[in-house]
Input
Amino acid sequence: MSGGFSRSEALLVSMGTGIVNWLFAIPAIYTIDTFGRRNLLLCGFPLMAICLFWGGFSFLIGGGPPEEGQPANTAQLGSIAAAIFCFMAIYSPSEGPVPFTYSAEAFPLYIRDIGMSFATATCWGFNFIIAFSWPALRTAFTPTGAFCWYACWNIFGTIYCYFLLPETKALTLEELDTVFNVGNREHAKYYTEKLPWYVGKYIMRRDMMPIAPMYEFTEETETRHNSVVEPEVKAGTAKV
Output
């Protein structure tokens, strides 16, 4: 036994990881240009945080994490595994593919190849840092604390995406230049002022007056966007 799993159980978990990642990445093909990149992240980050909190506190089942070399409590293992699989099911259509889409769109054409290479290298560099630092983090924070640490970073990601990340679904290269010409301060100000509108519409379930969009494009662009974008968030030329 290693970590509470037999060799056959560890193999099944590994296979399950790949299958879940593959299956739940498929919805992103259909939602990334309809539901939107920003919306996928705004839904994915808080749900991933919940799964990480769930997984972290699952270590407390049955009196806490087992001693090194000792099998874990069955209920503890089941809860941790369920939390991790749910995390992957949420990660695969959101945080998994969306950053690569953004990095392919955010850079001007004349440095797009360098920018995309740098973004990919940064991603895998942080993957290495997470894998390398996990044993020390687990020892210092305990498994529960380590999971909660990463959950808090997902909460930070939610806040960052809401205030600073523009929506780029169904935009041409020219329109992307317009969108990314809007500064972070202007973007944050717009969505700060729009926050009460979201609360009133989606939480209080009230009829809210539409808010002027942050971007306005040509009539041809608006016609194209109407097929994939809800009316209240049509994109277009930045109002700066």
